[in-house]
Structure formats: C-alpha cells, structure tokens
Write a structure and sequence with these properties.
With 188 residues, the chain is mainly β. It is 2% helix and 48% strand. The model has no long low-confidence stretch (mean pLDDT 86).
C-alpha cells in the first residue's frame, strides 16, 4: 500500500505491507504530491455494472510517477529509490505504465488539429522508442492542452490513427499491435 503524507516542507511517500501495515520503505519528496501519474481514479476502474474488477487493484506497478507541479518524479516501488524526473505540463504530459514512462507532446497544427509525439522511456530516463501519427486522446477542448492520462492497460496503449482508426501500441517497445478499420471503436 502506498501512502503520502505532506507538511509545509514537502511530502513523504511510504510503502506499507498489506498484511501488517509495517513500513517497507519511505522516500522524502521535495514538494507537494498532487497525484500519481498513470494511476486510475477509483471511478475509472468501476465497470459498467458498478463493480470493481475482481483483482483490483492488482500488484503494484514497478514504477510510480509522483506529479508535483510541473514535474513527475519516478519512484521504484521495490526500493523507494527516486530514479528520474520528467517535465510535466499541458503540452508535455507524463504517464507511468508498469516499468515504462510515456511522454506525450501535443503541438497545434493548422486551425483545428494537434500533432502528437509519444515516447517510451525506461525507469532510468533513457528513451527507448518514439512514435508519431497517433492520437492518445489526452486533449479535451481546443488548443492541444492535455488534461488526462491516456488509456493504458496490460502494457498496451489505446490510440487513434490520423485517419480515424483505433489502434493498440505495446508500451514496452512501441510496436503497433493492432489497427482497426476507419471509424471503428475499441470496446475492450
């Protein structure tokens, strides 16, 4: 179980054992912990019938991204060690998926569109892959300002191609796994 406690001089992230609540590790964060990057809110994990998936929340991911203002600090959940930092704002969104970090850059193109660049990084901050031509659905409204995490489950990122086809990209290596038909919808 991950828990955050904050005071005026910063926050402490703790990992506790699920059985007895004993602290396994603690890490001091310099700044406020606004939210966890890539972590789904409770409302997002409830299915259409209002029930949680039987194995929710599942095992802890290898990396957790702590969003603090305009940056994301990566924390290794096995040791509590801070591994790297990424810039995070409306144009440079960061989300964590298992043992990978995804950075999503959105730039305005023409009168009504956005050009996205999706990059996959390892926990140490080394870029592993780069993809363009996919919309990760992180922008709401006009102006290419990102405000939400992309849909990532089971190591797969759900996106749309520029010509309106749903597609799936493997987070580990950026490989396109599947592309649907134009106008199609990804259901599950």
């Amino acid at each position: 179980v991950l828990a955050t406690s904050c005071r005026s001089n910063g926050c402490v992230l703790r990992a506790r054992a699920t059985g007895d609540g004993k602290v396994r590790w603690r890490t001091t964060l310099d700044g406020a912990a606004d939210r966890l990057s890539g972590h789904q809110d409770f409302e997002d994990v409830v299915d259409r019938t209002g029930l949680l998936h039987p194995d929710h929340p599942g095992p802890a991911p290898r990396l957790v991204g702590v969003v603090s203002g305009s940056r994301v600090v990566l924390v290794d959940t096995r040791s509590g060690r801070l591994t790297s930092r990424f810039r995070h704002d409306a144009r440079h969104w960061v989300t964590v998926a298992g043992d990978r970090v995804l950075t999503l850059a959105a730039q305005p193109v023409g009168a009504s569109g956005c050009r996205y660049t999706i990059r996959g990084w390892d926990g140490s901050g080394r870029m592993l892959w780069r993809r363009t031509g996919y919309n990760p659905d992180t922008v709401a409204g006009s102006g290419c300002e990102q405000s939400r995490d992309p849909l990532v489950l089971g190591g797969v990122l759900a996106v749309m191609t520029l010509d309106g086809r749903p597609a799936l990209i493997r987070v580990r290596d950026g490989k396109a796994l599947w592309t649907g038909k134009p106008g199609g919808t990804l259901l599950d």
